[in-house]
Amino acid sequence: MIRFKMIGVKIIRGNECLKDAFEIRQKVFIEEQNVSKELEWDEIDKIATHFILYLDKIPIGTARFFEKDGIYYIGRMAILREYRGKGLGEIILKKILNFAKHRKISKIVLHAQIAVVKFYKRFGFVETNNEFLEAGIKHKKMVYHS
Q1: DSSP, residue by residue, 91-145
Q2: Taking a C-beta distance cutoff of 8 angstroms, is the pair 51, 39 a contact?
Q3: Mind listing the pLDDT tens digit for each residue in 8-39?
Q4: Do the beta carbons of residue 79 and residue 60 sit within 8 Å?
Q5: How many CB atoms lie within 10 A of CB 130?
Q6: What range defines the domain where residue 72 resides?
Q7: Is the dihedral of CA 72, 103, 23, 60 positive or negative?
Q8: DSSP state of 16
């Protein structure tokens, strides 16, 4: 893992101050991966708990955690391209898993892009189905049990 001067994760509930998270998602999902704006921006942002990863006060990663129909999900996890492969994604994922643990949430679902399935497996997520398309990108549903 690379060492930086200052790194931290800010936790935000609902729509409060989501500018940094939205800028990261705009760059990663809409610009880089060509996800349509209509698919990227949804009502879940209003109910989700958002995690924003900062490196020396610069927002570089984000994810959201939410409950829908009694199931807890991690979604929209993104690290800016220039910061990938440096161990920074694990910081935000560990923060989310710890957040869930403290709330006694034992099962979490996510839809992982095929390219990052191995990343999630390292943290105990298990594939539960065949590949499927979401926003034109191949994914696998994965489940975590603590």
Answers
A1: HHHHHHHHHHHHTT--EEEEEEEGGGHHHHHTTT-EE-S--EEETTEEEEEEEEE
A2: no
A3: 999 998 666 899 999 999 999 999 999 999 99
A4: yes
A5: 7
A6: 7-145
A7: negative
A8: T
Q: Which residue has the tokens 């109910």?
A: 47
Tokens for 111, please give them: 């839809």
Residue 1 within any structural domain of the chain: no
Question: DSSP assignment, residue 140?
Answer: E
Q: What is the pLDDT of residues 39-98, one digit of tens each?
A: 999 999 999 999 999 998 899 999 999 999 999 999 999 999 999 999 999 999 999 999
Is the entire prediction scored with pTM above 0.85? yes
Pair of tokens at residue 60: 């570089």
Query: What's the Cα-to-Cα distance from 48 to each of 44, 54, 82, 146, rounded to whole Å?
Result: 6, 19, 26, 21
DSSP state of 89: H
CATH code of the domain containing 109:
3.40.630.30
